[in-house]
Amino acid sequence: MKKNDLLEAWLETWDPDPTSPIPREYRAFFDCFNRGKFYEAHDVLEHLWLRCNNTDRSFYQALIQLAGAFVHFQKHATFPDHPTHKRRIAPGQRLLDLAAARLLPYGPKHLGVDIQAVLELCTISKNRAALGNNPLVGFTSPALHLHSRTQLSP
Length: 154
Prior knowledge:
It is a single chain. By secondary structure, the protein is an all-alpha fold. The chain contains six helices and two strands. The protein has helices at 3-14, 24-34, 38-49, 56-78, 89-103, 115-130; strands at 109-110, 113-114. Strands 1-2 form a two-stranded antiparallel ribbon. Helix 2 runs antiparallel to helix 3 and helix 5 runs antiparallel to helix 6 (115-130). The relative contact order is 0.13. Residues 150-154 have low confidence and may be disordered.
């Protein structure tokens, strides 16, 4: 079975609100991210991003990059002495920079997301990493909030 087929099957079983007007991939991204499943968050939103052909495409890409940064930090935290994973802090920092740059045009709120709060998460995480601290070690796990469907318009 192909990756997209597996993801589609998972989304069918995951969806707690199939009548929601918010794309399930978008909702699943927040669910996965907030449970520390950063790789899965990246994958599920990429599923939506690949089909997107409007101005939200770059916004989705920013969130994918944010999740990707935390994949790097998570691998580093899990395998700090591994030859590859011990060098994941710098790539994570670069992805945070890319995500923040992509998010700037969307503020202050976009598709139910407080852009300033996400930019603050990027800055705090990047600053911790710059000091040699893994943003996932010894700190509260990051969380993103998707506001109600009535607040989805930019």
